[in-house]
Amino acid sequence: MGLVDYQPESSYLHTMDPRVKIIALLYLSVVVFVVRSIFVVLVMCGVFSVLWSSAKLSWKSWWDFAKVVLSIMSLIVVLQLFFYGENSKAHFMFGLQLSDNVGILSNYGPKWEGLEFGILLTIRFLSLILLMPMVIKTTTVNQMSLGMVRLGLPYKVAYMTTTSLNIIPTFQEEIRTIMDAQKLRGMTVFEEGKKWEKFKSYPALVVPMIIGAMRRAQQMGVAMDTRAFGCSKDRTYIETIHMKRSDWLYLAAAILIGAVLIIGNSVIPQSVVTMILD
Amino acid sequence: MSETVIRFENVHYHYPRAKRWALSKIHLEIEKGAFIAVMGENGAGKTTLCQCINGTVPNYHEGVLKGKVEVLGYDTQACKTTDLADKVGMVLDDPEAQLFTTSVRNEVAFGAENLRVPADEILKRIDWALDIVGLSEYIDQPPTALSGGQKQRLAIATNLAMTPSVLVLDEPTSQLDPVGTRDVFEVIRELRETEDMTIVIATHKSEEIAEFADKVLVLNNGRIAAFDEPHIVFNDAELMKRCNIRPPQVSELASYLFDRGQDIGSRPVLVEDAYAAVIRWYAGRERV
Predict the structure, then answer these.
(1) Which of A180, A247, B53, B123 has its CA 20 to 30 A from that of B241?
(2) Do A236 and B126 lie within an 8 Å CB cutoff?
(3) How many domains does chain A have?
(4) In this structure, are A124 and A186 located in the same domain?
(5) Which CATH architecture fits B4-247?
(6) Which of A163, A219, A240 sits opposite B97 (nearest CB)?
(7) Which residues are B166's β-sheet partners?
(8) Average pLDDT for B98-126
(9) Do A261 and A199 share a structural domain?
(10) B145 — phi, psi (to 5°)?
(11) What pLDDT is stored for residue B174 in this prediction?
């Protein structure tokens, strides 16, 4: 089970009007980046975790992706550690600041603020990989494109967006097939090789995947044209969406949660480091 | 006099950057309600000819097309493929690439929705199309959960829901096992019996073609090598050899017996006909 494929379940998120989910996703994604307090971002991550669990979504698929995000973010944390903050205000770790006579380099050294900002970014991304898949995994492609169209997006754009999300699991499947084919011919570097060997072997995986993807995209284009895709600006839908009373309540709840978090962000001290060290 | 629905007038087609013409000097007229099989070895031009019918060639692949292809009076070069969608249905060889929604219901509805057919009419068409292809019980399943044969039957249903007059199938069974192949041909047989639809199918399956097709169009290096009834085409041993086509096994058996001095009296292409011929031949031997 991937992170962006539809997961059929019978939760309230699955039956929610797609427009509510799309609006809430956009709104809360902005809130995630507006909020700067590490406490508030943690609370937000907690709220999203509760929603994730209540939608009966797979934690394993989230954790598989979170591991990738964490490995990338660890690099960003290290970079932030050294390059974040102004020299005059920063709190350098263990006095490890390059002396002033080094000139331009005097700004460099590990800073507590950098560590804090790196952690903040990490939690933000972990929140986003809870929030976005939560919408995608609980909404069918048709519902999603219908929701986007009803929100005013052109049908072609809406369908292309949702179909591209839907195609990611197909690519994952294709990669598995290529890896199996390579294993059968004795290539076990992706299972047993060292990281550098794996890195060097990626072209063997990526090149056939791209060629296969292009061929598939071309065939899919023919199949879609054959079935009148985009022949007129409007189209009919066998599915209908109606904003129910519960949908209005969910939308209000999402707006309220975002507002509370933004207010919380302005009330609670933004930096733990400043709070402790100043 | 029957109405001509597909007309090729001296059609030549050249893919971009290709070294030779994929189609040359194609003159062809297909009548309404006909079942035409297109045969030939790989690279003979079967797919190109099929894609000319719904305008995918040249609209999608570019290249140079000379001559004129007319389908139901529409010049395919002057129309977009999407404009021909309600007139010409097309089933591709790859079962995976042509299914892209999350349920069988949505897959069948997709084309009709694009054509702005009212929702209640689409729902009726979904039931009808899935009933014909025998997939009614899978209506809520994702297409990925179906077998190869079921996927191709679903691909046929997706086209039926747009009620086209012409159905083109480009090697629909090339990636299927014998069971999937038989199921797809059963659906085609059903369509043949119940719907007044013109069907063009590119295939290598000579046994099935011998049974179903009105005429066989043989392509060789992009040119028409023969266009005649199955028993005439399949009994032309020189043509079969030249175009690398394997005739039905019963036809091969009759030729094999003939070459060894055992003439069973006819060149059957169907098992039933072969059985009758062998019985007659054997009874004649008994009398002698």
Answers:
(1) B53
(2) no
(3) 2
(4) no
(5) 3-Layer(aba) Sandwich (3.40)
(6) A219
(7) B88, B198
(8) 93
(9) no
(10) -85, -5
(11) 86
Per-residue pLDDT of B207-253, as tens digits, reads 888 988 999 999 999 999 999 999 899 988 889 999 999 999 888 88
> pLDDT by residue (tens digit) across A204-249?
888 988 888 888 888 888 899 899 998 888 889 998 899 999 999 9
B-chain residues within 8 Å CB-CB of A224?
Answer: 100
- Distance CA(A102)–CA(A120), nearest Å, equals 30
Q: How would residue A89 be classed by pLDDT, with cut points 50, 70 and 90?
A: low
Integer Rg of chain A from CA: 23
> What pLDDT is recorded for position A277?
66
The span from the CA of B249 to the CA of B156, in Å, is: 28
Q: Is A148 a member of any domain?
A: no
A-B Cβ pairs (cutoff 8 Å, strict)? 106
Residue A150 counted as domain residue: no
Query: Distance between CA A171 and CA A178 in Å, rounded?
Result: 10
- Return the pLDDT at A104: 57
Say if A160 falls within a structural domain: yes
Shared domain for A133 and A260, answered yes or no, is: yes
- pLDDT by residue (tens digit) across A181-212? 888 888 887 777 787 888 888 888 889 888 88
Number of helices (H), then strands (E), belonging to chain B: the values are 11, 10
- Domain membership of residue A146 (yes or no) is no
Nearest in space to B43 (alpha carbons), one of B10, B15, B16: B15
Name the helix (H) or strand (E) containing B217.
strand B215-220
Between A94 and B269, residue with greater pLDDT? B269
**3-class secondary structure per residue, B29-62:** EEECCCEEEEECCCCCCHHHHHHHHCCHHHHCCC
In this structure, are A28 and A63 located in the same domain?
Answer: yes
Write the burial class of residue A252 (CB in 10 Å: 0-12 exposed, 13-18 middle, 19+ buried): exposed
Interface touch B114/A222, C-beta < 8 Å? no
Q: Distance (Å, rounded) from C-alpha B266 to C-alpha B272?
A: 13
Contact list, A221 vs chain B (CB under 8 Å): 60
DSSP string across A85-140: S-TTT--BGGG----GGGGGGGG-S-BHHHHHHHHHHHHHHHHHHHHHHHHHTTS-
Residues A101 and A122 grouped into a single domain: yes
- Which domain, by its residues, includes A54? 1-140+242-278
Q: Quick one: tokens of B207?
A: 């046994």
Distance (Å, rounded) from C-alpha A117 to C-alpha A128? 16
φ, ψ for residue A132 (rounded to 5)?
A: -65, -50
From chain A, the residues in CB contact with B51 under 8 A are 222
- A176 and A49 in a single domain? The answer is no
Same-domain pairing of A125 and A258: yes
Taking an 8 Å cut-off on Cβ atoms, the answer to whether A166 and B89 are in contact is no
Domain ranges of chain B: 4-247, 248-288
